[in-house]
Amino acid sequence: MGLDLPAPAPASDDPFEGLRAVAALPFERARSMPPAVYTSPAFHAAEQRGIFAQDWICVGRAGQLARPGDYLTAEIAGQPVIVLRDGEGAIRALSNVCLHRMSVLLEGAGNTRSIVCPYHAWTYNLDGSLRGAPIMSDNLDFCRDQRLPQLRAEVWQGWIMVTLNPDAPPVAERLARLEPMIAPFGLADYTELFHETHRWDTNWKVLCENFMESYHLPACHAGTIGGVTEIDGHFFTEDEEAFNLHYLTKDPSFVLGNAHPDNTRLTGEWRGRTAIVAVYPSLLITATPGYFWYLSLLPHGTGQVDITFGGGLAPEFVGAPEARESFAKLHALLTEVNREDRGCTERVFRGLNAPLAKAGHLSRLERPLYDFAQFLAARLAPGPARG
After folding, report:
1. Partner of 65 for a Cys bridge, out of 18, 70, 334, 374, CB 3.0 to 4.6 A?
2. Rieske domain spans which residues (predicted)?
């Protein structure tokens, strides 16, 4: 006899109800979120409306936009966005949709003196104001005094944050409780040395959860950082509304993970401390005394995620004679770590789609996943208080 597999989950199975049930549990009884939270198109649509269209989303580091005219592009909750350094030196976010026939204007990243629509050559200044519109003078209703819609952009700890929500609290206000927990690093002064984009075949929340917890390090990262990281017995935040964080200690032999001898800013435990930070919804940061790296995630449907991946060195390593060697080692290490994470997270998503998939219990080392579920439930599936 073959395995008697259950029928596929009926359409009435409700991921919102499943999330409410998980969020209502006390941490001592915590479970993973149910598979439908990751695989349901209806849940994905609700995330776009209720989270990505409402929150601050990271699009990169301010150092990427060093000169006037430097720009990058992103798509947030279906809205194409240009983020650029304008002629006055300010970072500005604009709608990346032409005011004429609604073509997307710019793609990728680069430098430009003006924004020219590739469809009919309508041209905009770097502040979004319309500069030129060929052969439009015969239209009696046409007005040259137009500009691309402006979006809010702020820089926090060196990261550029953009929101579609005009009423969102400022980033610094939203993350005021996080600031002192990472302030000793001085992350705004770290130098980004590489910046890449990727698309993986997994759900964005699977990758978020993977980054948030260090329980997986010994197994998933056995070939890289698993053996030089102590994963147990360290501080975890609890019940924070905008982020979660935990600290790790790196082995002193892992030179890049510890403070450079010239670093006089960090003392005591901070000289070997690593902070793993998740800024909700999808900015994921590893900060160490020697280097940093980050992922910023945007969902591409339920089964793919678009990733901005960047990293670099602390000022003391950037300025040291061995800087080139340090960067080469860092990039090679992080590329391999990402390769390992991709394998782990894509396997999880395959498993989530299996007929016999069922949410399991969480380890105490997975406290960040419990708090992430609380964030998602508060936004998308509010329900009774935890039991």
Report:
1. 70
2. 56-162
